[in-house]
Amino acid sequence: SSQHFPFVFRYCMALLRLALLLVHVGGGDAAAPKPCPAKCRCSQGRGKDDCGVIVQCKGLTAFPAAADYPAELDCLYMQAPKLGSLDAEAKERGLIAVPDTVRRLDLSECN
Fold first, then answer.
1. Which of 54, 62, 75, 95 lies most in the core, judged by the most C-beta atoms within 10 Å?
2. Measuring CA to CA, which residue among 56, 13, 16 is closest to residue 38?
3. What is the pLDDT along the chain (111 residues), one digit of tens a residue?
4. Euclidean distance between CA atoms 54 and 26, whole angstroms
5. Hey, which residues does 44 pair with through a beta bridge?
6. Closest by alpha carbon to 99, among 17, 48, 33, 39?
């Protein structure tokens, strides 16, 4: 509903302020983490101070469900302008579904 919009907007803006610019993150030698959301690429990073589990998504029209993200996800990059046109409730559900293990979140191309 429209009364949720101000909360979701402020929440998204706070996340965007905390998000890093999209950077190239190299994958490791380990197998890709499972599960992996549709239209996303999942990979193992170097760990330690770098990303351990990385998800990069392009062209999404809806946020993935919580169960679609790999365990221990800590870096999530989304290039999905259509997410910006979702209604406030869909945005709120999508942001709540992002695992609390995420340390880096980039929604800068989600409009």
1. 54
2. 56
3. 556 556 665 665 555 554 433 333 333 445 778 899 999 999 998 877 788 999 999 999 999 999 999 989 999 999 999 999 999 999 999 999 999 999 999 998 887
4. 9
5. 53
6. 33
Q: How far apart are CA 83 and CA 97, in angstroms?
A: 14
Q: Residues of 42-56 as b/e, b for ≥16 C-beta within 10 angstroms? A: bbbbeeeeebbbbbb
d(CA 1, CA 53): 34
C-alpha distances (whole Å) from 93 to each of 28, 32, 64, 83, 98 are 31, 26, 10, 12, 9
Which residues neighbour 94 within 8 Å (Cβ) at sequence distance 6 or greater?
A: 62, 63, 64, 83, 86
Cα–Cα distance for residue pair 18/105, rounded to 1 Å: 8
